[in-house]
UniProtKB/TrEMBL annotation:
It catalyses: N(6)-acetyl-L-lysyl-[protein] + NAD(+) + H2O = 2''-O-acetyl-ADP-D-ribose + nicotinamide + L-lysyl-[protein]. GO terms for molecular function: histone deacetylase activity, NAD-dependent; NAD+ binding; zinc ion binding. Its EC number is 2.3.1.286. This is NAD-dependent protein deacetylase. It comes from the Eukaryota. Belongs to the sirtuin family. Class I subfamily. The lineage of its organism: Eukaryota, Fungi, Dikarya, Ascomycota, Pezizomycotina. The chain holds residues 10 to 286 of 367 of the full protein.
Length: 277
């Protein structure tokens, strides 16, 4: 890709040009693809940021390797590490960020086709994005089942177990786990059932993901050629920047979102929504 080639849909490769495109009314089917980086400002560590990331904080759990906390075979062997982590991440403790509120603004205006999230914190729901506009690609804390007989388990009982750090067992003797997809498990049907929507997108925004977990990491490539793709992340990731109408903006997503929202005249409304959450 030759960067001297001008973009086709955008006037320039920057945030202002993306805001102009949205303002022009050309984007009616916006797709977001997000990861742990959109929730770090809420106080939830991501996986891979050095020192502050979850993996670097897992040492005290004495895991054979950090990823084991989300490994289904390790969970069967010793579920305590996951339960300790679930205690930290249990929904209700954290407030959505302005980036979550920004996505809700698209939903409120009927412009959100889907928010594909790798996050399990359910802050998208807490921000007021309708459930049917969210694809929880790696599951979430919203449900819980036995890993053997797949029977649903009582929410309140699991919550008590998570709070005390003691694993919950189903009547059949199997371990209970929230519906978070572990390494070694299939992704939820809603993920595969929503992939076709990527072809309908007229703007794609990727935020706060290292794009290192597949198959999610390949989603941006499924956006049709010619459709603008915006990356807002602390580091350059994936292949965004390889097409004419790609914008790669490096920094904290809340800052990028603020710049975009101010251009769109949405910022004050967003602050009001955030205060009310
Ligand atoms: P990751 O691999 O930890 O990558 C996070 C990315 O976000 C990195 O590229 C960071 O540079 C970037 N980043 C961090 N903070 C910011 C910020 N403020 N603004 C912009 N960019 C930032 O996380 P991924 O989501 O890519 O990895 C996929 C895993 C992480 C999924 O399976 C998730 O379930 C899992 N995860 C989720 C949560 C959560 O639910 N909040 C927390 C930690 C991990």
């Amino acid at each position: 890709f030759d960067p001297s080639i001008p973009p086709a849909k955008l006037s320039r490769r920057d945030l202002r040009a993306v805001a102009e495109l949205i303002k022009s009314g050309a984007c009616k089917n916006v797709v977001f693809m997000v990861g742990a980086g959109i929730s770090t400002a809420a106080g939830i560590p991501d996986f891979r940021s050095p020192e502050t990331g979850l993996y670097s904080n897992l040492a005290r759990l004495e895991l054979p390797r950090p990823e084991a906390v989300f490994d289904i075979s390790y969970f069967r062997e010793d579920p305590r590490a996951f339960y300790a982590l679930a205690q930290e991440l249990w929904p209700g403790k954290f407030k959505p960020t302005m980036t979550h509120v920004f996505m809700r603004m698209f939903a409120d205006r009927g412009l959100l086709l889907r928010c594909f999230t790798q996050n399990i914190d359910t802050l998208e729901l807490a921000a007021g994005i309708p459930r049917d506009k969210i694809v929880f690609a790696h599951g979430s804390f919203a449900g819980q089942h036995c890993i053997d007989c797949m029977e649903e388990f009582d929410r309140k009982t699991l919550e008590e177990h998570v709070r005390s750090g003691t694993p919950a067992f189903c009547a059949c003797g199997g371990l209970v786990k929230p519906d978070i997809t572990f390494f070694g498990e299939a992704l939820p049907p809603e993920f595969h059932g929503s992939l076709h929507l990527l072809e309908e997108a007229d703007l794609a925004i990727v935020m706060g993901s290292s794009l290192s977990v597949y198959p999610f990491a390949a989603l941006p490539q499924r956006i049709e050629e010619g459709v603008p793709r915006l990356l807002m992340n602390m580091e350059k990731v994936g292949e965004i920047g390889s097409r004419r109408d790609d914008v790669a903006w490096i920094g904290e997503c809340d800052d990028g979102v603020r710049e975009l929202a101010e251009q769109l005249g949405w910022w004050e409304e967003m602050e009001g929504i955030w205060k009310g959450l």
